[in-house]
Amino acid sequence: MKLVREWLIFEESRFLLEDLYIKLTLTTYLPYGAIAHPCTGKNVN
Questions:
Q1: What pLDDT is recorded for position 44?
Q2: CA-CA distance, 45 to 36, in Å (whole number)?
Q3: Does residue 39 register a pLDDT over 50?
Q4: Its domain of life (predicted)?
Q5: What is the Cβ-side half-sphere exposure of residue 27, based on CA atoms within 13 angstroms?
Q6: Max alpha carbon distance in the chain (Å)?
Q7: Which residue has the higher pLDDT, 36 or 17?
Q8: CA distance 45 to 5
Q9: What are the pLDDT digits (tens) for 12-33?
Q10: What separation in angstroms does the CA of 39 have from each of 4, 5, 10, 13?
Q11: How many angstroms separate the CA atoms of 30 and 36, rounded?
């Protein structure tokens, strides 16, 4: 049972890390002129 709980904590922290990484890359690259915004397809610059 302890293993299962530790695995769940690991999965959750990995998910949070991926979420943070995505947010970081979005806030880092989007302002510096990603060519097209994924939603609209328009130029962001």
A1: 47
A2: 9
A3: yes
A4: Bacteria
A5: 5
A6: 52
A7: 17
A8: 46
A9: 888 888 888 888 777 766 555 5
A10: 38, 38, 32, 28
A11: 9
Q: Map tokens 């994924």 to a residue.
A: 38
**How would DSSP label each residue in 1-45?**
-HHHHHHHHHHHHHHHHHHHHHHHHHHHHSTTT-SS-TTT-S---
Q: Are 32 and 25 in contact (CB under 8 A)?
A: no
Tokens read off for 43: 């130029």
Q: How far apart are CA 19 and CA 3, in angstroms?
A: 24
Q: Tokens 């049972």 — which residue?
A: 1
Q: What angle do CA 16, 41, 22 make, to 5 degrees?
A: 10
